[in-house]
Design goal:
Layout: E1 2-6, E2 15-18, E3 28-38, H1 40-46, E4 60-61, E5 65-72, E6 84-87, E7 90-91, H2 98-101, E8 114-116, E9 120-121, E10 128-132, E11 136-139, H3 150-167, E12 176-180, H4 184-195, E13 199-203, H5 211-217, E14 221-223, H6 227-234, E15 238-241, H7 246-254, E16 261-264, H8 278-287, E17 291-294, H9 300-312, H10 315-321, E18 322-327, H11 331-334, E19 343-347
Parallel strand pairs: 8-9, 12-13, 12-15, 13-14, 15-16, 16-17, 18-19
Antiparallel strand pairs: 1-2, 1-4, 3-5, 3-10, 3-19, 5-6, 6-11, 7-8
Helix pairs in contact: 3-4, 3-9
Length: about 350
């Protein structure tokens, strides 16, 4: 069968390869791959910045934003042939650390976890794949065109969970949320904020293309002013930060309302310097009881929450997030980011 593979740490090594057909082991599902979302992590692996092949192998099957249809399931399983499924990305470390031992491998403390399509486990960019039934999540049948959004939705489901877990240290009834960045993570974070009944604002520099319209269709407000101007105007109780841009990160922290929470989901590039009044920032965080928390990855509970959020979302709105669908043999087009792209998807079994 065909799979999209890469030689980790080697730039321009991405190619469609012939690999052995998968065989489901005990307790595993055999899944026909339908679609794969392409994100910044995949592009960085393709550029040779990082990535780890499975032990004893030179190449890694890339891809962690999965969608497939079950071909075969173990007897007595809660899955059946024809079910739509997504695969969880991370696996617990073998020690395990305390978090992994309690099923919270997304919070692994020793870094020995493995990740499908990223670190020591082949990913989901193949015409068929297997997944342990405990690491598969079922989607509603009507999500066949958009279920590939499961993984990024799981990331923001965790982010919102973290916000409310922190908020419950005392009375917490947020009203206004600011999402910085209108990429897939930002827009899905806005969706979940609206579903929670919050007044949602989205900040991005893009003025044309689908992003402003997608925000408007959520009945949220779209902003293109500076982060300082926007936070001064709306005084957010919660910020979901999805850009990783240093100036935006620190501006969002400085612009919080008292007892506000910033959840950082964007990974910042290294090497860029920014002058910050650390003393003033520290003073505001302390005196206003503000919190800054980082959040990455997701476990099964977050994937389940993502499935529920997508199931109740407007289907046409979700379709609008997918701005390009690319056949597997044209994978290079999917890794070339377009100015108006939101989510680019590889179709793994396109005719």
């Amino acid at each position: 069968m065909r799979a999209l593979t890469v030689a980790p740490l080697q730039r321009n090594s991405l190619e469609v390869s012939e690999v052995a057909d998968p065989r489901a082991g005990e307790g595993e599902l055999l899944v026909d791959g339908l679609a794969l979302g392409v994100c910044g992590t995949d592009r960085e692996i393709a550029e040779g910045n990082y990535g780890w092949a499975p032990p004893g192998h030179d190449r890694l099957v890339i891809g962690h934003e999965s969608l497939g249809r079950v071909r075969a399931a173990p007897p007595g399983s809660s899955f059946a042939p024809g079910d739509l499924v997504a695969g969880v990305v991370r696996r617990p470390d073998p020690v395990p650390c305390g978090a992994c031992a309690h099923g919270e491998f997304d919070m692994c403390r020793n870094g020995r976890y493995r990740e499908r399509g990223i670190k020591e486990l082949d990913g989901y960019a193949s015409e068929a794949w297997t997944v342990e039934q405990d690491y598969a999540v079922k989607l509603d049948a009507h999500l066949a065109e958009v279920g590939v959004l499961m993984e990024p939705t799981s990331v923001v489901a965790k982010a919102w969970e973290q916000v409310f877990d922190v908020g419950r240290r005392a009375w917490f009834e947020p009203e206004r949320a600011l999402v910085t960045g209108a990429g897939p993570i930002g827009l899905l974070a806005a969706l979940l904020g609206v579903q929670r009944g919050l007044e949602v604002h989205v900040l991005d520099r893009i003025t044309d293309g689908p992003k402003p319209t997608l925000v408007e269709k959520l009945s949220a407000d779209y902003h293109t002013d500076s982060v300082d101007e926007v936070t001064k105007k709306i005084r957010p109780d919660v910020v979901i930060e999805a850009t990783g841009v240093g100036q935006v990160v620190f501006g969002a922290i400085a612009g919080l309302d008292p007892y506000g929470i910033v959840c950082l989901t964007g990974v910042s590039p290294v090497g860029r310097k920014l002058t910050v009044d650390a003393g003033s920032l520290n003073r505001e965080i302390v005196l206003e009881n503000n919190v800054v928390v980082g959040s990455v990855n997701a476990n099964q509970s977050h994937f389940a929450a993502a499935a529920a959020a997508l199931a109740k979302a407007d289907l046409d709105w979700l379709k609008g997030l997918i701005t390009r669908r690319i056949a597997l043999d044209r994978f290079a087009d999917a890794f070339d980011r377009g100015d108006t792209d939101v989510k680019v998807v590889l179709e793994l079994n396109a005719a």
